[in-house]
Amino acid sequence: MAGRSNSIRIIGGEFRGRRLTFASVPGLRPTADRLRETLFNWLQGEVQGTDCLDLFAGSGALGLEALSRGAAHVRLVDQSRVVARQLQQNLQQLGAQGRAEVMTGDALRLLRAGADRSFDLVFLDPPFAANCLPQACALLEENAWLKPRSWIYLEQDSHRDWPPLAHNWRLYREAKAGQAACRLYRRDIIEN
User: Fold this and answer.
1) What is the pLDDT of residue 1?
2) Which of 13, 65, 85, 109 lies 20 to 30 A from 77 at CA?
3) Which among 42, 91, 95, 100 has a CA at the least distance from the CA of 71?
4) Angle at which helices 33-42 and 61-68 pack, to 10 degrees?
């Protein structure tokens, strides 16, 4: 069944167990259930009431999971109109349109433009072939997208070296599953 292979399952929270479809687009690779479960175990007690930014949203697995676990607002960004349309449909299916927004556009261009708001929790899981993680991390820090104690989740191909990051990003946890490696950072307050 084709729809079944292009589906994600919400692991916990309000929408736990719900299956949602995602668009069939080259390079779209949802974060594995195992990594998602690990991430949200790390973030236990930290998601409720947060403003989240899911750049390179793709299937929306990370942002929708955060929404299910009590995030106040989630912004899902993807450059594919097909992906964005599916994300909108999934939000409708969950009855969560009022707590989330979908933006269609290039994530790096959005980050360069500067923040219209800052976020408590940011998910960065770009297509593995794109190699845009270093630039995205730098732009998040430079252009005021992060709150003083933001959480930042990074996911990339496990064969790649991690990019250099801002000196105030502290590694909290890391894991690997198959081809994917992930890290969770906590941004420290910068004292003037």
Assistant:
1) 34
2) 13
3) 100
4) 40
Q: Could you give the count of Cα atoms lying within 13 Å of 25 in the half-sphere of its Cβ?
A: 20
**Which pLDDT tens digit goes with each residue over 151-183?**
999 999 999 999 999 999 999 999 998 889 999
Tell me, what's the pLDDT at 112?
Answer: 95
Q: What is the pTM of this model?
A: 0.92
Q: Which residue has the tokens 């793709």?
A: 58
Q: Which tokens is 38 given?
A: 């690990």
CA 192 to chain CA centroid, Å, is: 30
For residue 171, what are its two tokens? 């590694």
Tell me which residue of 147, 151, 128, 25 sits closest to 78, measured CA to CA.
25
Q: Which two tokens stand for residue 53?
A: 């930014």
Query: pLDDT at position 31, please?
Result: 82
CA dist 90 → 17, 168, 183, 186 (Å): 14, 36, 27, 29
Nearest to 88 by CA among 30, 21, 145: 21
Domains annotated on the chain, with CATH? 2-187 (3.40.50.150)
Q: Which amino acid is at 16?
A: R
Stretches where the chain sits below pLDDT 70 are 1-4, 190-192
